[in-house]
Amino acid sequence: MNAFRNTGANGLAGIAVLAAVVVALALVPLLAEKFYVQFFAKILIMGIFAMSLDLLLGYTGLVSFGHAAFYGVAGYALALVTPQYQAANFWTSLPLAIAVSGLVALAIGFFVVRMHGIYFIMVTLAFAQMLFFLFYDTKLAGGNDGIYIDVRPVAKIGDWQPFNLDNFAHVYYLVLVLFVAVYVLLRVVLASPFGRVLAGIKANEHRMQSLGYATFRYKLACFVLAGATAGVAGYLAAVQFGVVNPEMMGWHLSGAVMMMVILGGMGTLTGPILGAAVWMLLELWFQGLTKHWHLLMGGFIVLTSLLLPKGLIGLFGDLLHRLAKRNG
Amino acid sequence: MDFNTFLIQLLNGVQYGLLLFLVSSGLTLVFGIMGIINVAHGSFYMIGAYLAWSLAGVLGSFWLALPVAIVLSVLIGLALEWLVVRWLYHRDHLYQVLCTYGLILVFEELRSVLWGDDVRSLPIPELLNRSIPLTDTLSYPVYRLGISVVCLAVALGLYLVIQKTRLGMTIRAGASNRDMVQSLGINIQLVYRIVFAAGIALAAFAGMIAAPVSAVAPGMGNHVLIICFVVVVIGGLGSVKGALIASIMLGLVDTFGKVLTLQVGGLKLLPELSSMTVYVLMAVILLWRPEGLFGKKF
Q: Which domain holds residue B112?
């Protein structure tokens, strides 16, 4: 019984912490300059992206090295439905972009989720590169220069416009709302029976199969959900930056988002968010230090992957554990 | 397409495939024997090309630069195994991918610091800078034929070393049971170091000999790496024979994808989408055999 009571208390405390964080984040545009508001929006966008990857990486044990494909495809979906010098409709283009990402994930997932281990890593990378080259080499969508989105989507309902995406603070609040929505959605999904099956697949796929679960379908559904969620992030990135290019689906981004998840701590939702924030701050810091900041970033990745197997969350956990031991 | 053009494209395809084999054989060996997935493998292709370019400039001759560059790349491989890779043997593939992804950033940036971001070109060495005439108007460069011959020789050498020598026997034994080999008194750590350095040197060597016929450019390793992943996946992880067959298949598919034209109902597929042909091939083969042509079932 004790255990149950603890979970309940933790659950309440969790909601309280979440509410406090959301309130704090909502205050950002009132206090900070434009640059920092946009920087925070970028962190939240990457946070959504990293959470979506953790669904595969941390919760289901599918190491996808091509997750940027779904992020990029959603951005391109917005760019392609935006008529030149006119605005797209926000209410139709967002679901469309998410659907496109989900469909692409369904098509790729059909091939890849039957793979295991190292094959899965390589094949997800290869498929993402295939999409990258499709956009990079052909004149389908602006080639390697990408496409500029001259006018941001308009969110009109009849004559009423609840928010204006040309205003950076409105973009920030949109990102924040979707960020919270994604977080809550993933929490609910992961706590559902579906989420428990995913955890079972991660622990022992053969056992899940012998229990009668069609694991292929569960993994495919998870892959599509992760892809569609990455699409939310990709759409928001396209709105905020006003441009899409093939780099959005490049493997540098796939590697970076994987790094955010690991850095923060896999198999948690808070971890990837923390990882995204630390990663973006580090990037900002290193870029200010030297032109060759990739060198510092690369060195940082090598050291983290060698020394911090459980990510920052794990490190904090260990420290807390040690403190508790010393005190009690 | 007439016969001579076909012949030239065939030779080009085989030559490209054999070059891919040099790079991917190292990738598949390091995985098959050491269980390490090294995504920084393509960086050594780039490093090889840049080493050949800069040493040829310093020493004045491609033929002098070649051995020096090979020795340097072996040394880099040994150092890297000692510094980084040996900590990864017992780690999950995920961390191997991440760590070596970090290495790509480091190598790419070091290249930028040392040699700049310009595209370089290396002249074809005098000795082989001629062509074999096929008809009055068509001819085939000797240097490209030379690349194919050298690659075949390396493939044969690899086969002999792995199958016929004592070192090869140790390597094969180490791949199937590391602890057993170690308890028989063999220094498996040393064997791994040698295999890793050899794999690196193979990729760098491919970059060196490819440098005169391709641009020496930033990011050149990344493209090769992805294609080599496809090779290794199609051929079956850890299988050198599979890598050889898959490389030549990919070389031919890629080359002919660029010169053939294919239209389906007014929709132009080739050569417009030629950069995707190899991935389509991979998807088809994986649907048929998820573990690749010569891979072990996982």
A: 12-121+138-218
* Tokens of residue A119, six digits: 């094959």
How does DSSP assign B173-237, residue by residue?
HHHH-HHHHHHTT--HHHHHHHHHHHHHHHHHHHHHHHGGGS-B-TTHHHHHHHHHHHHHHHH-T
As for the ipTM of the complex, it is: 0.84
Q: Domain for residue A280, yes or no? A: no
Measured in angstroms, the CA of A92 and the nearest CA of chain B are apart by: 29
A257 to chain B nearest CA, in Å?
A: 11
Domain contains A43: yes
Question: Minimal Cα–Cα distance from B290 to chain A, Å?
Answer: 7
Q: Going residue by residue through chain B (298 aa), what tens digit of pLDDT does each one get?
A: 778 888 888 999 999 999 999 999 999 989 888 888 898 999 999 999 999 999 998 988 889 999 999 999 999 999 999 999 999 888 888 889 889 999 999 999 999 999 988 888 888 887 888 888 877 777 888 898 999 999 999 999 999 998 899 989 988 888 888 888 889 988 888 989 999 999 999 999 999 999 998 888 888 888 888 889 889 989 988 888 899 999 999 999 989 888 887 777 666 777 777 777 888 888 888 878 888 888 775 4
Chain A, nearest residue to B107 by Cα: A295
Residue B165 maps to a domain: yes
Which of A111, A130, A306 comes nearest B286 by C-beta?
A111
Q: What is the DSSP string of A147-167?
A: EE--S--BEEETTEEEE-TTS
> Are A130 and B110 an interchain contact pair (Cβ–Cβ within 8 Å)?
no
Burial class from Cβ neighbours inside 10 Å (0-12, 13-18, 19+) for residue B80 reads buried
Q: How many domains does the structure of chain A reveal?
A: 1
CA A7, A10, A12, A15 torsion-angle sign: negative
Q: Which residues of B touch A255 (CB under 8 A)?
A: 98, 101
Q: Is residue A320 assigned to a domain?
A: no
Residues 108-127 of A with CB under 8 A from B: 111, 114-119, 121-123, 125-127
Residues of chain B with C-beta less than 8 angstroms from the C-beta of A129: 226, 279
**Residue of B99, B273, B298 with shortest CB distance to A306:** B99
Q: How far is B222 from chain A (nearest CA, A)?
A: 9
Residue range(s) defining the domain that contains residue A86:
29-251
Cβ pair A98, A220 in contact under 8 A: no
Look at residue B27 and tell me if it is in a domain: yes
